[in-house]
Design a protein that fits this description.
10 helices, four-stranded mixed β-sheet, 59% helix, globular, 4 strands, alpha+beta, 2 domains, Glutaredoxin
């Protein structure tokens, strides 16, 4: 990947984190050359603790040694710093930009917790309840797509290019694919949210989707690792 700007760029991340994938997509779209440093969140290293002492989480972008934390903030930073490189990620219109930020926050506050709660359900009854709750949240994203895309059959950006809100939602797709394989749950259901399901297919087939989205099997393997870790912790406490 060719460098789009001078300066040292390093990304602290974890391959299965949708929030890290979001940032990697933004850097990819902007053509920014960077060093990727995988982190182990079971044993957090000094580099991560030094640069994100508040939350101690990935992603962390280091630009000339200065840390930027939280994925949505990083994507906006990348869009502004490398404004002359690659497509603009946030809309130019102030109102559209505010709407995109609102829905991106909705993704992190509502959509992500909804689908991850399905993964964490311990009984079939609990899972069925969580699936219903996730369906309601996903229907709101269907409405957001219609609003932001202006009724066009494209991306949330409203045209044929991937934008800020597309990255916010799209970074979750490989985990949704893993969930379908693991427990047979389809979160973005074409019967209930046909527009969003069609968008998801377009996103997966986009250049950034093909180049950056991890394989669902990687997420599934990590989910098994987390499950084993939790079971060992419970056994140790008994």
């Amino acid at each position: 990947m060719a460098a789009a700007s001078e300066g040292d760029v390093k990304l602290l991340g974890m391959v299965v984190s949708p929030f890290v994938v979001r940032v990697r997509m933004a850097l990819h779209l902007k053509g920014v050359s960077y060093e990727y440093v995988e982190q182990d969140l079971f044993t957090k290293g000094e580099l991560l603790l030094k640069h994100n002492p508040v939350h101690k989480k990935v992603p962390v972008l280091l630009h000339d040694g200065k840390p930027i934390c939280e994925s949505l903030a990083i994507v906006q930073y990348v869009d502004e710093v490398w404004a002359a490189s690659g497509p603009s990620l946030l809309p130019a219109d102030p109102h559209q930009r505010a709407v995109a930020r609102f829905w991106a926050a909705y993704v992190d506050d509502k959509f992500f917790p909804a689908w991850i709660s399905i993964m964490r359900a311990e009984t079939e009854e609990e899972r069925a309840k969580k699936v219903g709750e996730a369906a309601e949240v996903t229907e709101q994203l269907e409405a957001a797509l219609a609003q932001c895309a202006n009724g066009k059959q494209a991306f949330f950006s409203g045209d044929d290019s991937v934008g800020y809100l597309d990255l916010a939602v799209g970074c979750n797709l490989f985990w949704l694919d893993a969930m379908r394989k693991m427990v047979g749950v389809v979160v973005i259901d074409a019967a209930r949210t046909p527009g969003l399901a069609a968008w998801a297919d377009r996103f997966r087939e986009s250049h950034v989707g093909k180049e950056v989205l991890p394989d669902a099997d990687i997420a599934a393997e990590y989910a098994k690792k987390i499950q084993a870790y939790r079971q060992a912790a419970v056994a140790a406490s008994m």
